[in-house]
Every structure is written in C-alpha cells, then in structure tokens.
Amino acid sequence: MSAKSVKGEGGKKPASAATNLIAGGGAGMMEALVCHPLDTIKVRMQLSRRGRTPGTKRRGFLATGKDIVKKETAFGLYKGLGAVLTGIVPKMAIRFTSYEWYKQALANEDGTVSGRATFMAGLFAGVTEAVAVVTPMEVVKIRMQAQYHSLSDPLDVPKYRSAPHAALTVLKDEGISALWRGVSLTALRQGTNQAANFSAYTELKELLQRLQPQYENKNLPSYQTTVIGLISGAVGPFTNAPIDTIKTRLQKTPAEPGQTAIQRISLISKDMFRQEGPKAFYKGITPRVMRVAPGQAVTFTVYEYLKKKLEDSQVPFVGGKYEE
Fold it and tell me: Keyword Transport on this protein (predicted)?
C-alpha cells in the first residue's frame, strides 16, 4: 500500500485529517442546523401507531410537523439537536478521513480509483462512522425526539432534560451497551447510504467536469455541487427505508431482559407487518428524503468550499515536501 499514491484533484495531496475535521465538521454543523426539524418529524412518523386501528388515519409529514409546533412550540422540532451537534464534528471527520483512507487502500497500483473501490470505500466509511459515533448519538437523539412533553409548560418536566442528561440516564438505567443498541442496523444503514452517496456524487462530479473542461481538476461552482449533492443524497433513503424505521423503533425503547438484538429486530418487524402493514416500513420516507437529500447538498457544498479555503491557505505540497 505504501508503494501506491492516490492523488487528489489537480494532482494535489489528498485532504489531511485536520482539513477533514474542520471542513467536515463545519459542513455537518450547518447541515444539522438547517435540516434537524425534518429529522424530528421523520422520527415521530416512524414511531407513530396511527393507522393501525380502524377509524384512525395516518398523519402526513406536514400534519405531524404542525402538531409538534402546536403542542410543543417550534423548539420541539429541535429536540435532540444537542446530541447531533455533539457528535457531528467527529462523525464528519471520521466519514471523510476514513473514506480517503479506504480509497487509498482499495486503489489500483497506479493510484487510480475504480467505481467499485469508491463504492466499497463509501460502504466502509459509513460502517466506521456508525460504530464510532452515529449509533450512540442517535440513541440519545431519538430518546429526546420521542418525548411528547410541552416545552411551553414549565410544569411538564421531561424524563430527559438535555442530551448529556439523556446519555447519563440511559447509562445509569440500562448500561453502556444501550448506547450501541441497533448498531448493526445503523451500520447497515450508514454503510449503504455512504456507498450510494459517494458513488453517485463522484460519478456526477466527474461527468460535469468532463462536460465542462474549464473545471477539469478543479472545484465545480457551488450551485452545481449543491445539485449533485441533492441527487446523490436522495439515493440512500429509498434503498434502506425499512432498515431505518426498524432501527428507530429498536433504539426508542429499553430491551426486555434476556432478549437478543436479533430477537428484538424480528419481533419489531413482525409486529409492524402484522399490525400496520408493509407501508409501515416506509413511514417517514418523505421527511427523510427531504432531510437527507438537502442535508447532503449542504454537506458537500460547505465541505468543498471549506476544504478549498483551507488548502489554498496552506503552503503548496510538491514532490513529497512542503515548499520553503
């Protein structure tokens, strides 16, 4: 592996871990602030049992959002944001850094990266971030998003008062393993998401660069990065919606004594299918696509912008040495 060298755009040295930390973290924070309300609506829809019994109608994403605002104020849409912001910097740093590392490991001897290598690098990067950061972050986030208390009523005291309090409560009541509940499903979801995401983004970016020679080995205009990020971000949710819905229900409640993860996943799946029908596995797909697709558009646009600014501010790297 040391014999091959994977080059970045324009023959540059691939982005460093520090660049990925700053650019990825900044992109992730912006994405979370812009798109978190849609994630809250998605979680509420996935946890909803409406439509299970005769006479009840499934509530759509607009009605779910309005209901949250009406009962819990607009701040209710940002429940669990603290958990997301706490984990978003390491999550994005791990995603982009591990993706670059896996790409180098899977590259051909001449340093070129095939489409298959890009797909596998995205898959492994998604699994890595899921195990390291995303699973505990989502357990805390979902516990807070699932609370139906009113933020406008000071007497309505929630079980979880903040993200740190939720994490400590889960640790105290259920043990450290509870923070990694659903890790297999989360890894599967994140892996397939990032495999599809990086593959689609890379292919679309290279296509636009070929069609526009003036941008060969250069960053595309921000609006084009936003568009291809939007398209690539929409691919994953449609392919793994059932995984995400089952994962959400699994992480929402404590495990029963003696129950294995496989047993819980099987029980949740059977119960959903029997009581709510196959459509239940796609609950929240609309806000999820609306959350993930623009989220990836924001992430890639901000990441590319910050990465370029950081690289332009560094001393050029030539022949394996920094110029004096």
Answer: yes
